[in-house]
Amino acid sequence: QVQLVESGGGLVQAGESLRLSCAASGRTFSSYRMGWFRQAPGKEREFVAAVSASVRSYADSVKGRFFISRDDAENTVYLQMNSLKPEDTAVYYCNAGAALGGPSSYWGQGTQVTVSS
């Protein structure tokens, strides 16, 4: 079992930055692929970014603005979000597993990010 706890959300203005953190506990963190998803009101949950041992991937909508990293020593994954836009407003969820977002993966409780124009 893996427990994920997100933090770092908040209310910012367009153009500002936020850094989200996801602290993991339970099984071996380093063996899991880690990622971030988000869900805006009235929309389906969507992929944002993922990181494995040496590979990062991003949704087109956040490329060049968001940066995902992980610290296996601290069992934490981060999402640095720069140049935030109102359309980035959503609940952001941390996810861990062999297949991100899959039925056997683990989810955090989510953290709200609100970007005002």
What does this protein look like?
The structure is a single chain. 0% of the residues lie in helices and 54% in strands. The radius of gyration is 13 Å and the shape is globular. The chain is mainly beta and 117 residues long. The mean pLDDT is 94.
Q: Note the main sheet.
A: 7 strands, mixed
What value does the Rg take, in angstroms?
13 Å
N- and C-termini, Cα separation? 40 Å
From N to C, what is the helix and strand string? EEEEEEEEEEE
Q: On the 0-100 scale, what is the average pLDDT?
A: 94
Record field, number of beta strands: 11
Give the overall form. Answer: globular
Estimated structural class: mainly beta
Helix tally?
0
Helix content: under 10%
Low confidence ranges:
none
Strand content: over 45%
Set out the fold topology.
Blueprint lengths: L1 E6 L2 E4 L4 E9 L6 E7 L6 E6 L4 E3 L7 E6 L4 E6 L8 E8 L8 E2 L3 E6 L1
Parallel strand pairs: 2-11
Antiparallel strand pairs: 1-3, 3-8, 4-5, 4-9, 5-6, 7-8, 9-10, 9-11
